[in-house]
Amino acid sequence: MAGRLQGKVAIITGTGSGMGRAAALMFAREGAKVVGCDLNPAAGSVADEVRAAGGEMVSLQPVDLSRPAGAEQLVAFALERFGGFDIVYNNAAMAYFAFVPDMDYETFARTQREEVDIIFHLLRAAWPHLIARGGGSIINTASTAAKRASAGQGMLAHSAAKAAVIAMTRQYATEGAPHGIRANTVSPGMIRSAQTEPLMKQPGWTERAVSRQLIKRIGEPQDVVYAALFLASDESALITGTDLGVDGGTLAA
Predict the structure, then answer these.
(1) Is the pTM of this model over 0.90?
(2) Alpha-carbon distance 144 to 163, whole Å?
(3) CA-CA-CA-CA torsion for 101, 104, 105, 109, nearest 10 degrees?
(4) Which of 99, 114, 161, 233 has the fewest Cβ atoms within 10 angstroms?
(5) Rounded to the nearest 5°, which phi and psi values hold at 182?
(6) CB–CB of 19/191 below 8 Å?
(7) Would you say the C-alpha torsion 89, 95, 99, 103 has a positive or negative sign?
(8) Torsion sign (Cα): 214, 146, 218, 107
């Protein structure tokens, strides 16, 4: 199955760490030319890792995709380096949590900017170039939080944002189909990341988290990226407008 993305160019956001870093390494290993980006100025080291492993990657940082100018800059960077792109993997996002009595508007709105607007701006800039390319694959990162509430964490803003991501992806799929553009979401459950590592150090937290899953372990970044790789590849040519859960069976439990 090697070379599943041979000849394709992939924009992957948030490649500085976690799932974005794993995606850059995996997509490049499967033959894609990767265009990465991150807010973190040090994120360029991931491109060095990819090239050291024999892959091809360029990276733009720092860039703020929650603003239109940042998204336009990233698309221009991809066009300049590779002339076009076939895959847009919207991995980057940041959520802010508070229970309902403590949820102020700025926290709510900031979450929407950094989980919803960040996708809108990039796809608005990328859309005409995907059409000109003759189609492509969009993978947006949603979450099980879009479908399941939590009594233990204040997820009002995060749940609203990720539900919006799933809904808007269906619309991208609908409008993209005549142009050969597919759009799908991946919905991670509890995955090891910079945001979850501090929680996992709390006594009993991990045990409580996995008790809500059918598969009794915390997910790793590559678990999510394997799903994204499938959706990016031609193996999923008949799949669009769908949400693929990578949650250890959380929604089935």
Answers:
(1) yes
(2) 9
(3) -100
(4) 99
(5) -100, 150
(6) yes
(7) negative
(8) negative
